[in-house]
Every structure is written in structure tokens, then in C-alpha cells.
Amino acid sequence: MMNTISQPKIEVRGMDLAYGSFVVMRDLKFTVKQSEIMIIMGGSGCGKSTLLKHLIGLIDPVRGDILYDGVSFVKADLDKKQDTLRTFGVLYQAGALWSSMTLEENVALPLEEYTKLSPGEIREIVSFKLSLVGLKGFEAFYPSEISGGMRKRAGLARAMALDPEILFFDEPSAGLDPISSRRLDDLILQLRDSLGSTVVVVTHELASIFAIGDNSIFLDAESRTMTAMGNPNELFKDPPNENVRYFLSRGEKAN
After folding, report:
1. Rg (Cα) of the chain, in Å, rounded?
2. Which of 143, 173, 225, 252 could connect to 97 by a Cys-Cys bridge, CB 3.0–4.6 Å?
């Protein structure tokens, strides 16, 4: 029983990231606990989004392994990988909504694709997911008819359609004004607390990092490896190296 409780939700072991012969990051090692919000942070070009693509199976590592609930994702056969992928929800940087579909149709798409639910049951779930992100009553709207912040929330509703165990966010605050960004941060915290999802967030936004991060890793572009891991507020107080100190001190720390 103790082993089950202490088992990390995600474990990355000695992973190298590369495009051909160009090495982006070396020897990444970290774990993410159940229901934890993990921040992947670092400056532009350090490999944050590349790491996320590895975690969700879009790119295979050149070395190392990724384990979900103690089971290798890298070494799994195609069927097992597909089963694991269905436990993920992904919110891409631009929301990635289909412009020709209403919000209801966008959120319904994964339910129609991967479940045998009736149209009525799907409509009920879609309405519930949209209400969770504050978009009740916007089912018939198209993405072009709503604001950027609302599109991000609609993308989040779609990411949650299949009740994922793990949510992945790629720069969720990109392009948003400070108020919309804060609302999205609050929504991420509420969803984690109410649904118990594990959350992995790629971001360089300090306000979000300090507001929502339970844990974090810092990818250092100079050394091409991970040079810090810990609660971002604690890393701010006691940075392990100059690059982490500089990154976390760029602006005023969030309250």
C-alpha cells in the first residue's frame, strides 16, 4: 500500500532531448506527484516546449525514459501508448480550437471520437465542462466570436472532456492581458483542487509561476541541462545558481 501512495505520477529518468545531432537538453531527471502542479520554466529557446512534446509522445527521447504510474511510456507498445495518451488533456499555446466548429462541437469532438456515449449524454457533459470554465451559455459561439482568454478557457474545457488524469499546458498565459492571465491561473488551481488532476505547465510568466507552482524545474540554456528543482517561491528566496536567480528576479514577485 505504501508503494502505491509514494509512486510518482510522472518520472523522467536520464532523458536527453535532441533534434538530429543538436542536443537541446541532457540528463533530465525529475518526478511529478499525484495532484501536483509542476512548472517547466526557463528562458526562450531552452527546450521547455520540446520537453512537453516528449512528455505527450510527439517526440521520442534519444536517451532515457518517461514513466507514468511506474510504467515506461517510451518502451510501451502502440496500444499501451494509446491507452496512456487517453489519460492526458493538452492545452496548446493558441488554444487549437477548430475555427469552423462551435465551442460545443469543439468540446464534443474527443467524446464522439473516443466514447460510445449518446448525443444527449455528450451534450450534457459538454455543457458541464463549459460551465466549469465559466463559459455556460456560449455553446453556440464560434472561436472567432469570443476573446482570447475565453478561447483559452474553451480549449481547457476540451482538454478536460475525457476527465484526464494529467493536464499539460503549453504557455497558457501567452497573449493574455494580466487580468485574463490571473483568471486562468485561478481556474487551473480550482480544477486541480476539485478534480485532483496532475498538472504540468510550460511557462516563463513569473506571476503564474509563483501563483500556481507546487514544484518546478529550471532548464538552463547555457549548460543544456536542468539546474534546479523545487517550489518556485523557495527557489526565489534561495536560488541555487545565478541563472535561476536572474530568471526569477526579472520582475516583481507575485503576491
Report:
1. 18
2. 143
Domains located in the chain, CATH noted: 1-80+165-173+196-255 (3.40.50.300), 88-164 (no CATH)
Could you tell me the pTM of the whole model? 0.87
Residue 166's DSSP bridge partners are 88, 198
Strands (E) in 70-134, as ranges, are 71-72, 88-91
Number of Cβ within 10 Å of residue 89's Cβ equals 25
Read off the C-alpha cell for 243: 541563472
